[in-house]
């Protein structure tokens, strides 16, 4: 038997798919919410690098998971990547890590690689499955990016290679690599940091305004992935 894991951070982004499949929560763990549907585990880790690491470590140890899909929202740092666009992550980096004074590259934890990547075969399959060719690089950190000083730090230290940001993806990639389980991330853009005209973005209001459509797109993606793995 094999199982797939679909993991995100926020219940509100998954409420549509939970309702469509008439799922009820499995209260096995006090620190994360999971739903089971046939051989699919849908998990809500709660926000942040630590929460996502705890969640995926727990689930990879307790379930025979062979494939991980991180599906959630993200913030765009690029003007060409607009809200409600669906993207597929190629590379993930910690934007909250900087040990350059010790000789490491920005984003590199000592003793670890600089970037973590989506599994190539999974990425190719997902691209065809959801008809998406928007491939991006993501940076994950410990705060919501909504100020010009944050944007400037990322642009300067990562040479403008970071397209979108969140607070979980890189930790999920990192942990999956330790367990040698293939992973791919699909991110629906919920908001965009507008640094051209403003010192502070309108990210919070964009997020609230776009959430219903983000939620719908996430449900559609989840259904396609579930049907791909389990056609019946």
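^ Assign residues to that structure.
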């Amino acid at each position: 038997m094999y199982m797939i894991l679909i993991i995100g951070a926020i219940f509100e982004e998954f409420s549509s798919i939970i309702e469509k499949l008439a799922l009820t929560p499995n209260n096995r763990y006090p620190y994360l919410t999971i739903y089971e549907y046939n051989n699919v585990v849908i998990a809500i880790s709660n926000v942040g690098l630590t929460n996502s690491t705890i969640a995926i470590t727990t689930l990879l140890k307790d379930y025979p998971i062979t494939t991980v899909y991180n599906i959630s929202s993200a913030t765009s740092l690029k003007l060409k990547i607009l809200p409600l666009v669906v993207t597929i992550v190629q590379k993930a980096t910690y934007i909250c890590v900087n040990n350059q004074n010790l000789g490491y590259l920005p984003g590199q934890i000592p003793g670890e690689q600089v970037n973590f990547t989506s599994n190539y075969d999974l990425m190719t399959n997902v691209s065809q499955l959801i008809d998406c060719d928007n491939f991006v690089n993501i940076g994950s950190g410990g705060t919501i990016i909504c100020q010009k000083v944050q944007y400037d730090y990322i642009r300067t230290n990562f040479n403008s290679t970071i397209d979108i940001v969140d607070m979980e993806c890189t930790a999920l990639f990192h942990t999956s690599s330790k367990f040698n389980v293939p992973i791919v991330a699909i991110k629906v853009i919920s908001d965009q940091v507008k640094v051209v005209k403003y010192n502070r973005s309108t990210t919070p209001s964009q997020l609230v305004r776009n959430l219903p459509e983000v939620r719908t797109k996430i449900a559609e993606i989840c259904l396609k992935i579930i049907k791909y793995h389990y056609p019946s």
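Residues 196-200 have pLDDT under 50 and may be disordered.
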